[in-house]
Amino acid sequence: MSQQFTLELSNEVYADLQQKANAVGVSLTEWIIAVLSKQTNGLGGALDSAARQEEARQRFRNHAGALSLGHVTGVDNESIDADLAIAYAGEYEE
């Protein structure tokens, strides 16, 4: 089954589209259908890509707080100062 769609275009837009259709050797209708089909497929891919990005984001968030060393790691000023003193003394080797 097919549907009919009427579109009103300015003369400039019509001429530009007609020229593009002629350049590839198809009718204006065929060219418009091909372009719209391609854009629709691209939109589906973008939506799918957005869904995959959200899945990946959720998987990443699931790792937050997943590792515990069993002790606090330098959130107090004294341990930060001690770490800096050691670092400035050159005792940290990488």
Characterize the structure shown:
It is a single chain. This protein has three helices and no strands. By secondary structure, it is mainly alpha-helical. It has one domain. α1 (11-24) packs across α2. The radius of gyration is 31 Å and the shape is elongated. The chain starts with 10 loop residues before the first helix and ends in a 6-residue tail after the last helix. The model has no long low-confidence stretch (mean pLDDT 79).
Largest sheet: none
| SSE-based structural type | mainly alpha
Question: How many runs of DSSP E, i.e. beta strands?
Answer: 0
Q: What is the chain-wise order of helices and strands?
A: HHH
Measured as a percent range, the helix fraction is 55-70%
Work out the count of structural domains. Answer: 1
How large is the count of helical segments? 3
Runs with pLDDT <50, length 5+? Answer: none
Q: Mean pLDDT across all residues, rounded?
A: 79
What sort of overall outline do the alpha carbons produce when their principal axes are compared?
A: elongated
Concise summary:
With 94 residues, this protein is mainly α.
Q: What tags apply to this protein structure?
A:
elongated, mainly alpha, 94 residues
Write the layout of secondary structure elements.
Elements: H1 11-24, H2 28-62, H3 77-88
Helix pairs in contact: 1-2
